Amino acid sequence: MKHVYAALLCAAFAAPVSAQEIKIGYALAEDSHYGAGAKAFEESLKESLGEQFTFRHFPSSGLGGEREVLEGLQLGTVEMTIASDGTLTNFVPEVGVLGIPFLLRDKDHARKVLDGEIGEEMLAKFEDAGLHALAWGEQGFRHITSNRGAIQAPADLDGLKIRTMENPVHIEAFRALGAAPTPMAWPEVIGALQQGAIDGQENPLSVIVSAKLNEVQEYLTLDGHVYSSTIILVSPSLWGQLDDTQKAAFEKAADDAVVAMRAFVDEVDASGVEAMKAAGMEVNELTPEQKAAFRDALAEPYKAYEAQFGADLMARIQAVE
Ligand code: PAF
Which NCBIfam families does the UniProt record give (predicted)? Predict the structure, then answer.
């Protein structure tokens, strides 16, 4: 680990004049991977710095959608968040490269990319966007849920009104596959599914299970079309007030939060399918051949992605072993 943790032990015993409150907003419930990361962060910080900071959690989009919360960080009205790469693409467009379908092969590959040079380079770009990014968290590989039937081939997506994140890379991919992508902020999604305004959505098992999407969706297709990351961020105004010992404690807490999020995702990836079947969802998993048909149908968008992000960067990502 690149961080220096040494001075933290002493800092834990330094009595604060008064504790500073950190408002942390995130999109999902406290018993989700977001909640697990936020709690691990809080506990780690307490271990390092004692009572210097207190946390007020705003789960389930309690402070608004991810975009609004990130704008709050920029303004200094919210101190902390964990937000998905889909939303963050609108703040640092380069992050969009990670949302290219089928670019990241599996969780191991994704974690190595994010923990390595490429991940570090991207986190650094957030300073210019008025945000301070601490570390990459995780959601897992995204799968399609729908009320219109199982998805076996690109033709099954024809005209499907599928909610996507507000991520141009995803919108372009679903359009090329013949669907009718409908970008929408997460807080509106469950209502839109209930009312039939959209037929489906796509998210990792971590989200499908914790948001109980089985209550509003009948079919789950395990296609793993794209890896979904998150970033743990703090407001530049909070970051600017911290001394070096506190900064090291925040960085360690972010590392601990990542460990907790990844463990949560691994657990739900192992147990989530059975849980969703038991809850009544019809689940199908694409074979490697079926998956290849989706990849092949994305040849045109891939040319556009290369033009936008650079074939070199995409090759660097693919070369990470
Ligand atoms: O689909 C999304 O918008 C995201 O995956 C979610 C559920 C808000 C978690 O960041």
Answer: dctP (TIGR00787), TRAP_S1 (NF037995)
